[in-house]
Amino acid sequence: MTRKPSLLLLAGALLATAAGAADTDAVVQAWPARRPLRDAALEARVEAALKTLSLRQKIGQMTQPEIGAITPDEVREYAIGTVLNGGGGWPGQDRAATPAQWRALSEQFQAAALQATPGIPLLWGTDAVHGHNNVRGATLFPHNIALGATRDADLVRDIGRATARAVRASGLHWAFAPTLAVVQDIRWGRTYESFGADPALVKRLGQASVEGLQEGMKDGRGVLATAKHYIADGGTRRGIDQGVSPATPAELAQVHGAGYLGALDAGVLTVMASFSSWTDSAGHVEHGKMHGNRLLMTGVLKDRLAFDGLIVSDWDGIGQVPGCTVDDCPAAINAGIDVVMVPLHWKPFIANTVKAVEQGRIPIARVDDAVRRILRVKLSLAATTPVPATVEALQAPELARRAVRESLVLLKHSPGLLPLKPTARVLVVGPAADSLAHQSGGWSVTWQGRDTSNVDYPQGTTLLAALRQRLGATRVSYDADGSQSDPKDFDAVIAVLAETPYAEGEGDVRITENLRHSRRHPQDEAVLQRVSGRGAPVVTLLYSGRPLYVNDLANRSDAFIAAWQPGTEGAGLADLLVAPADGKPWPGFTGRLSFPWPAGPCQFSAREARPWWPVGGGLSGRETRADARPLPEPADPAPICPL
Ligand code: BGC
Ligand code: BGC
Asked: Rounded to two decimals, what is the model's pTM?
């Protein structure tokens, strides 16, 4: 009686192991095998440095606190290897900190680190995701979704170079960028951090971004790039941030993995783990949180793809692994995390991790492997820099202006309306026309980007200011809500509509909501109603982090422009709205969609079959025939979307 079930159990267990091994092989073999490129001299320096470290110092190297939660003295005491500043983390908690103040704090951390571990510098990482966006005065470039619309790898590489220079100017070494997500559901609040829905585009632009950021690392000009978030961060069901991504092993490699192959080709040295979970939709196996996934971090990335650099965990990400807390997680380290981002709870983390090694719950060989990777990365770049700590070094306005110009997508146009004449009189409506916060989106000075005002962007030019420069202040009237003016007095109305800035999960469109902009921002529709059909053509710009359902708004506009979140250089917008005064040719609209543009409020999917505009869509503005059909406006403007 007792033998039968145990035999069955045994047989079942054997079968499960065999099936598990087959599944595992399928996951690994979906990826191309790569061979490691080792530099013998560098490896010798790594081994020599490793030998100088005690266990406690090794764990210190693996620990990444936030700058607000650690002092230089503590960096020395704990032999800390790396620090970060989070979104809206500044030296002395001062958002107005100058590049010199950033640099001074960096030098204090560095001096302390070199006292603790001579010859082993400290690295400081930051979310430089559209320029050096946490630092006052830095040029903010359009977000990645806009760069995806340019499809211009040379531009993206140049932006990487300029961003690296800004990061170096402030004394930092490491950009947590680019995001390589291939977004499947545009409800995700991080859609704008993605170059697009096409894996080949993400691969091409991701590679260019890494090349630009890392160029000149050895002589202190380039910075470390980070391929993030590994893997399938953009594949979560219903676009839920940090959710579950169903994907077959082939989809994992070919869709979500494409950007990583490009980044590896560019020599990327760091990868950040994703908060999301993976479910194998072929084998129906729930693999759980990526931070605990040994198969994908070690089996695929480090072994199959021969990635020799380091894997950093995301903000408190270890705490989401079953059985872990934010300050204690042997499972994540055993799965392959090398540097642990423990912004606040780093002291107990160090104590708990040292204990776990002493008790054999983390093999010392794993610790040594992690530290070798950290040392290899550290010894691959110069910790000091020739870039001056000046505000000028933070800026590249002409490059950003070009990026804006190349990224706008014209979705509707009455032939002949654009460009406006340099002598045109225009009425500007919509409060976002005068808001650098709305123009810049999330990850701008602060994490969410909405708790700022124009004084936080002393370097920036709003669209309103750019139009005044371009047309002359007397020809531009500004009426934020459109209630004080008569459009008939003007040659054209320029209406600026916008999503309120957001970052990460706070930007998710929840499952009870839909993509209709007018529902989420009824005040924008009201502004447009006041000026539309009142005797002057209306040119509408939408600042958004994702495509949105705008049929009602487009029907009340004579031209409709997806302007994404263009960043600080509003002059790039004016370049396309107004003809050059000096007789130079008007550049026209060259931006083309990197996501489909929805024709309905529930069209969330990046593979939508019947969108208003498909991927690649957009007008040049030179077309001579109008598409005069009004877009359908459903009776129920805010439906409950099917699950
Ligand atoms: C984000 C990462 C970012 C990190 C550090 C996390 O919440 O997911 O993209 O690099 O914070 O700010
Ligand atoms: C973000 C950080 C941010 C923090 C604020 C994190 O999830 O990634 O950059 O500063 O939350 O609580």
From this structure: 0.96
